[in-house]
Amino acid sequence: GFEDANIPFGPVEASHPLALTTADAVATNGVNPWNWRDTSTNGGDNQGTYGGRVILVKWGDYTKRIGIDGTAEAIKEAIKSAFGLRTRRAFWLEDEDEVVRSLDRDMPVGVYALHLDNGITIKLCTFEDADRMTVRTEDKTFYTEDDFRDFLSRRGWTLLREYSGYRVADTLDDLRPGAIYQGMRSLVD
């Protein structure tokens, strides 16, 4: 083979004690060890070539293998990263028996369905003129208390009041799904 500075390059001799052929490597488990991107989830026991504990998580048409050897927070971040979730929405895993499982390293190895929080959707009524005759409505969905607070703050409001009613909402838990609200700066608006 090609030599440079007395370091031999080229094919490894068959008689070398550490020589490993591709056929030898693939024969042990059926997966080429250099194919580190292999994420096959069809067939098998979902253990693959990873040495730790692995669960299968399904979301729609996607299935990902998630290692569960870390902390609950690490497992949560791995799931968010694997599925590209760039939100603060709550999510949970449900096993095949429809049991919601906590995320921890002791959770049973198996197949889980990923569920995302649907949030709370309301109708928001805004007036487009001073005489309050022209009304515009929009659907708004909140997933977290922070989302709700940020929304109120950006609009200069402190709370929402049900349209044609007296019930007010200044926290996410006060909102009723599907109700129609208008923004208010204070209770005397």
Short structural summary:
By secondary structure, the chain is α+β, with helices and mostly antiparallel strands. Among the domains are: 52-116, Phosphatidylinositol 3-kinase Catalytic Subunit, Chain A, domain 1 (Ubiquitin-like (UB roll)); 120-184, Ubiquitin-like (UB roll). It contains three helices and twelve strands.
Question: Secondary-structure element order, as H and E?
Answer: EEHEEHEEEEEHEEE
For the record, what CATH class of the domain at 52-116 applies? Answer: Alpha Beta
Biggest sheet character = 5 strands, mixed
Q: What percentage of amino acids are in beta strands?
A: 25-35%
Looking at the structure, the CATH topology of the domain at 52-116 is: Ubiquitin-like (UB roll)
CATH architecture of the domain at 52-116: Roll
Mean pLDDT level: 79
Strand order of the largest sheet: 4-3-7-5-6
List low-pLDDT spans.
Answer: 6-10, 12-47
Q: Name the CATH homologous superfamily of the domain at 52-116.
A: Phosphatidylinositol 3-kinase Catalytic Subunit, Chain A, domain 1
The N- and C-terminal alpha carbons lie at a distance of 86 Å
Number of helices: 3
Domain GT-1/4-like C-terminal: 53-112, 119-183
InterPro entries: GT-1/4_C
Pfam family, one: Ubiquitin_GT-1
Protein name: GT-1/4-like C-terminal domain-containing protein
